Amino acid sequence: MSLSHSPETHTKLLARIPAVTGRDLPEWFETIENGPSFLRCTERSHWLADEHGISHGYATALVREHERTRRLRHY
Description:
Elements: H1 7-21, H2 25-34, H3 41-52, H4 56-73
Helix pairs in contact: 1-4, 3-4
């Protein structure tokens, strides 16, 4: 089952990630890009949470934002 946050919750989670994890979003995006290839976002968020010890909520927000920004770069 995947987590789906409201846009407001998603924005708040992203804003807290640097303080909670000690890493900025670009650093996390690089980690995601250099990590294993997964077909589904849920697999990627589970890997991120398990491998880096962050909550699944933050991991899901990071993966969703990474996918969103990646799509924007291709337009």
